[in-house]
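Quality-control log, excerpt.
Job 1 of 2 completed; input and output follow.
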Amino acid sequence: MRPISPTARKRFCEGQATLMFYSIRHITRFRYSQPVHESVTELRMQPRSEGPQSLRNFQIVTNPRAQLYAYTDYLGNAVYHFNVLRAHEMLRIDVQAVVEIAARPAPPAAADPLEWQRYNRYNLTDEHFDLIEPSKFAKPSRALQEFAAAHDLVAPQGDPLTALRRLNKTIYDGFDYEVGVTQVHSPIETALAAKRGVCQDFAHVMIAVARSWGIPTRYVSGYLHHRRKGQYRSGEDATHAWVEAYLPSLGWLGFDPTNDIEAGERHIRVAVGRDYADVPPTRGTYKGEAESELAISVTVEPTQAPVRHEEFLRVARPLKQTPQSAAEKLYHQQQQQQQ
């Protein structure tokens, strides 16, 4: 992949680019204290292609090498799975992708005052209703009720878009970003009690509150490109998580409570679900008594447009039709008679 030119980088950093390409490399390494065998792993790491985002290139390399199988889950996420039967002390998964993201139109300053009335069975589908119900990591609790009451979030204020923006900022102001306070399987009560956490925790809190208002809300896992070091609270060398909420007149809109911003062309979507339980980047098991160590490296960089694949090649000089010989004509006539 060609590095981005200085001119293109300058335009991007100044926010002038209308179409951007990102190169992503995501390396995951599991190391075991003693050999394990028959490991089975499932991956949700392929960026989605929908709306302003298009996947242009994607590949997975494993060590030890394994045969990859793929399917699409009911949420539209690409899922890869593989197994390593022989004994191994390490499993490395190297994922590389290139995505194209177009500039998105800015949402309005506020939604229609009648938007709340549009949350009805005429405008919502089964998918939307499923995203109003509590889920494993985004569900009501006493701690959540106390948080909502303390920040005047029990009932939404204003139209849905205004209320969601206020909720986004309230979570940003009410929590410190700190790695290590919670784990991937921690309930939201842990972050609510400590008033600290990471993007996954803040997304779950926002989802739980928004659903209590009757707004279909889903969890998004992916990546966030940082234009400059220290621009956002979330880490540059890690995956990211944010929220998408459905407004009947506007569609799905993204909110990033970790950084108090709305999702835009620097947010790269990989998978969506009810909460983290639906979209972990890796999930698996193995046979053996070993302890495991997990190491992750994530790099997201702007890049140039990838070279087109062969299926997009334009024919510049077509083959000339050559006259058939007498033998060829006789052969084709015989074939037609046999059919």
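Job 2 of 2 completed; input and output follow.
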Amino acid sequence: MLTPRSLFPLLAAAAFLLSAYANAGSGANTQSASPARSNTTAGNPITGEGLPNPAPKVTRNWGELPEGRKWGSSAGVDIDPKDGHIWAYERCGAGTFGAGAPVTCDSNPVDPIFKFDRRTGKVLANFGKGIMQTPHGIHVDRDGNVWIADFAGNEAGTKGHQVHKFTPKGEKVMSLGIAGKPGNADGQFNQPNDVVVGPDGSIYVSDGHDGQGMTTTKAIAEGIASGATARISKFSPDGKFIKSWGRLGVRHGEFRTPHAIMFDAKGRLWVADRGNHRLEIFDQEGKYLESRYMFGRISGFFIKDNLIYAIDSESGPLNHVGWRNGVRIGPVDEDRITAFVPPFEREDRVYQGTAGEGVAVDRVLRAERLLAGLCELERGHQLRREQDQRSRDAGERQDSLGASDQRREPAHDSALVTGVTRAPEVAEERAFGGRREVI
């Protein structure tokens, strides 16, 4: 959101799923998004121009809701690690959220959590009624348990500012934080954004949403004085508080809205520090390791097969000049963008478009073809760099003999790029949330 507790409409509320299997009878309408250029491997990571689009087809209104239900806003989607089906939530029909929102999961107590069949979009599970106020982050652990961060509190002070754990069948088995009571004490939350379970079963929660609107040193100091949070809290597998790290600020290890978190294959914790326009990487004890800056003003991200898929729903002419919304894709070990899924266009989103807040990458069927194509692109870039270096070395030797530089572009590079641009033909975009214009 552009301001704390913003009441923007659903333009940034949809969650996105990059999927590589065909639509199996969902009845959704499809349309083609603008294809990426296929004649270049270089591109502009800020605008996305010239970068390949691995998900050029859009399926609108994917995912069936129970009769009488309408999609509200959403900011979360995840993949079940056991069966590949899709978990998401919707905010009980709420099109806005935060203080004063006319509809919440407290005022409209319907089941907000959904499991959808990955082929048909039909509901496989639906639960969570009467427990939360405003679901925000979602995580499915390796045992299939579903974790939800409940971002805001209700007027009665009896719900919200908690993290809940549910079994795959919907039984609530754990709650962290104090219901309806925001705060910065150990084990307490003040607008929890996201939750993830670590490799050893420890629980990590990113806490504090208001920092992104603090754009001056004075505002940050006032936020700290008021008790606003911007931190990661760690709990034992049974829910006992262990430690927290981070505060409002711009230094490494400080945050202005740690909006999403996830572990990579090396066991490192990645944090989308949205207000500071970066990804921060830590070890499991909170030691700062490194950062990434090329992925925009990140609302959500997903890591799979050494690639990062980061979705930017908030960059705009007033807060991140020139940067387009959309999904930026790049290698885990480099701060570099190799592909871009563009946003949808809206007249009231001048120069930026509109994209969702959550992203997940399907790991079944033909997804490997899409990801293999992106890996080929990476390999092509590396081969090209090596070839260019050999050519420069050879050119220097020839120059010393009075010869001209005969460098050439490697012939295999264009073939690899062609392979990448063909791979998306099997891809589909699916979306969840208020607009459900998906990837």
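Post-run check on job 2. Residues 116 and 123 are 5 Å apart (CA to CA).
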